[in-house]
Amino acid sequence: MKTIAIKLSQLKIPLLMAIAFCISINASAQLTEAQRYEESKKTEVWKPVPPKVEAMPNQPPSDAIILFDGNGIDSWEAIDGSDAPWDHSPYAMTVRAGSGDIVSKQSFCDVQMHIEWRTTREDDKTGQNKGNSGIFLQSRYEIQVLDTYQNSTYPNGQAASIYKQFIPLVDASRPAEEWQTYDIIYTAPRFTGSELTSPARLTLLHNGVLVHNNVELKGQTEWIGEPKYYAHECLPIKLQDHGSANSFRNIWIREI
Amino acid sequence: MKTIAIKLSQLKIPLLMAIAFCISINASAQLTEAQRYEESKKTEVWKPVPPKVEAMPNQPPSDAIILFDGNGIDSWEAIDGSDAPWDHSPYAMTVRAGSGDIVSKQSFCDVQMHIEWRTTREDDKTGQNKGNSGIFLQSRYEIQVLDTYQNSTYPNGQAASIYKQFIPLVDASRPAEEWQTYDIIYTAPRFTGSELTSPARLTLLHNGVLVHNNVELKGQTEWIGEPKYYAHECLPIKLQDHGSANSFRNIWIREI
Amino acid sequence: MKTIAIKLSQLKIPLLMAIAFCISINASAQLTEAQRYEESKKTEVWKPVPPKVEAMPNQPPSDAIILFDGNGIDSWEAIDGSDAPWDHSPYAMTVRAGSGDIVSKQSFCDVQMHIEWRTTREDDKTGQNKGNSGIFLQSRYEIQVLDTYQNSTYPNGQAASIYKQFIPLVDASRPAEEWQTYDIIYTAPRFTGSELTSPARLTLLHNGVLVHNNVELKGQTEWIGEPKYYAHECLPIKLQDHGSANSFRNIWIREI
Amino acid sequence: MKTIAIKLSQLKIPLLMAIAFCISINASAQLTEAQRYEESKKTEVWKPVPPKVEAMPNQPPSDAIILFDGNGIDSWEAIDGSDAPWDHSPYAMTVRAGSGDIVSKQSFCDVQMHIEWRTTREDDKTGQNKGNSGIFLQSRYEIQVLDTYQNSTYPNGQAASIYKQFIPLVDASRPAEEWQTYDIIYTAPRFTGSELTSPARLTLLHNGVLVHNNVELKGQTEWIGEPKYYAHECLPIKLQDHGSANSFRNIWIREI
Question: How many other CB atoms sit within 10 Å of the CB of residue A156?
Fold first, then answer.
């Protein structure tokens, strides 16, 4: 496969590398086409065959676990295990302010997750009070949900921040009443006994824009004090009731 | 990682951790609400304020560089610097088979890139000959484009493979004539002189499905032999003419 | 109209028709293929050639007049000709309650029009007070905008009604805070002097669902009393401030 | 109809109308607000309540009959009643050239119908041979399917024409390999015995653009000779095999 598709003349190639390159060209030149084809087969890898997933436009991938698609909220429950107390319609599930957080019935570790959220219009509120909610991976690591379109707060607490740990690379917020998307790639932390052996890692696209690129989380989300890790196993997704009637939809998750 | 469905109440929290937790509760309990609020402010970070990006539905982010949106192919050129020889309409730019690869006029290093591609229908071809093309980051590191819907080939050469380096986690291919998407998060390799100090890293979503999660590339894409790194600077995106009249559209890129 | 499932073979073709059909078959059979092809050319019509319109996915047709696409509200003005007093962002233009109706600067007669609207959440209101606004074709003929998802009112005044003239065929309403679409095909009334010679006609799709099929309007929209026609020329589109902070977006119009 | 840009204030209201208007104002002015409200209730119509339809984004309306959504082609059959001989995948159903037309198992009269179609790339063909197929309402009235992007033919036979009866108002064609949409509003002809009492009527949006506005069909589609009506009952939708491997998807229909 030809790969000198750039302006080689502009590259400053160190001498030794150039020599190595010429030798390689010569070596290749001495092979016939048939020999080269035989040579190329040596780097083909035929196993494993990756599993087939249908990924239709405007649909969750066929191997995704659906957490909300408009057909009820049976995949969720209250913290105490009773029925999820939020409102829902075919279009969305919506925080019933004061009813409490909800958690997925199923627990998860490493995942790709898609979720859409919308803050309700709260013209009379500001800062952290305006359209606040949150998505907690493994019930512990929060990606902030907040109406931060023309609403000032501390950047490590704005929408798409990893709350009090990482400021998003850019502010891709949309206004209240607009649907927004998070595409999450999450690697759970590893523990040996109570000891952390590998921290959690997170990549996040907010409305399709990269805001975190494989960052290493510092520990469990804390409002006060520094984050620390506490050993745990796979755990549910938690969605926060922070007093705003925010909505969620199109929630699906793939174990990776 | 295996998922074990457990409830919060069932967690076996190690003893030391539980004690630490209780102490922390006690400490907090001794603070008034006002004191706690003061305490919480210590972990607010007010700088930097991330730059504002408008991310409208069905539009590139406002800070993206547009490489193709239907308005001509002036952002591209032939390898020799002459005009890009491919076909184009408001809907797509299409390989003119035999005309050669094209490269972006602009060079890039670390990027988020979105590109849509479509293989043409070639019922008479199989394996690597069916709807073949490729997207080369920095003109050197290839993400494979191929019609691999019900078309068998070596998995490290199928669509969404990092050619001859990484098999995709799953096969999210759509059939010929369907538009497909790549969302790419790419960190360029770092060199000190001719020495590699940090390999290239790549995360890839194929049709919205995670197929590579921050993998470390092994070097420049090779058809024959093992990949190696050769020091280089920022370089153009290259799109391959491999003899199939494949199409591309909605190409945008953000420097990150 | 009731649908009766039948197969072609089960059709009772009236005798005369069957005979006519057989004669026609015979006549055709007597022609050679070449003669038939010559015959077929007699019903080809080569003029006029319809004008080319590019109709890209997620974009207004290329011949549309854009009334709102996020780039300001300069296409609109207050009734008295001063600047349009509504709020706007790249995402929407929004009624500033109490500021008054707005009208397009341009006047229109026969049109195809696309408009998207969203009612704000008003949990404390009911009936005609909940998310009320309206779209007046030629400033006179109102298509109702109202939050009628699980909100009862008189059907000839619900969302997608032609206010106090026609009940929509079905209720395709979405809840508050969801974007909804109207696709309007409108034929203006014709007058000779002050006399009506042809009434206005309207076809309406609400969220893609047919709710009016070429109905003949009864006159100018009236809150009290029966509608009547008053002769007029081409006139602006009017959007109503009825006290709810509803939003509009993606407004385009084609003269037909 | 020509559009003349005027402001409301510039309207020349005929004298009689102005007087009538003033009288009406006076009459209203003599009523209290409460009396006016009472008066307004006289034109409220409370029955019938239109049936509720959920019309979610990117989904068929909840009252639609699904004719193809990727889950097999059991809703279709060959003309002779045997299994539909076309190809299908989760993405599309595709003409198997030479296998013959297919018809819906169910018969229909008045309908709203949505269908998406794609012509395959046939660079070696021109005119009526390039990407030809057709959609026959009631198996008799054809809306043409053809690749007429930069492909000349007689306009009453181009894509979106009512074949050999009506030229589309504009040419909204997309190129081969692009999905295109038809939104059809169809009123079946009425017959008393063998006599036509009301012709078929059709409104058509092609890729969202109005191309026919409630036109009256002239009879059954004919390749040779003038169209005539032959009495019939409700009949299936027919999709044509005209030798091109065109595809269809997202087919749904609502009886109206």
Answer: 19
